[in-house]
Amino acid sequence: MDSWIVWLILAAALGIAEIFTLTAALGLLSIAALLTAGVALIGFPPGLQLAVFVIASAAGLLGVRPIARRHITQPPLQRFGVSALVGKAAYVTKEVTGREGRVRIGGEEWSARAYDETLVIPAGSAVDVIQIEGATALVYPRE
Question: Which residues of the chain form CATH 2.40.50.140?
Fold first, then answer.
């Protein structure tokens, strides 16, 4: 069997394995094997074929893979607007019950209700914002 066929079979096997693993590494090795199959088809000796495979593999894994991984990873989602207030600490300015109250969140005063309707949170307490409903913050006392 000619060596270019062996390299072609190796390239196909690595390509199929890449489909199942999705690591990008096996795909780059598959491309290196395909390049080596072309070199073998031209008629270069096995030692040079192996050198081409090693150099192409190293170039792919060290050069292309970090760039691909950088593009694949997404930055963490940034919350903005009222959804950014969820989880923040607040200060009760007027007693908060299950129906009404006022809190200060980051310098702004908001209408508030207790997340648990049976709670009464006195003025001066620290609370956490659990949810925002319209213009009302649902809060729970800090522990």
Answer: 81-141
b/e map of 121-133 (b: 16 or more CB within 10 Å)? beeeeebbbebbe
Q: How many CB atoms lie within 10 A of CB 23?
A: 12
Q: What would the pLDDT profile of 83-97 be if each residue is shown by its tens digit?
A: 888 999 999 999 999
Domain 81-141 class? mainly beta
26 is written with which tokens?
């096996």
DSSP 106: T
* Residue showing tokens 């190293």: 58
pTM (2 d.p.): 0.51
Is residue 18 within a helix (H) or strand (E), and if so which, with residue range? helix 3-21
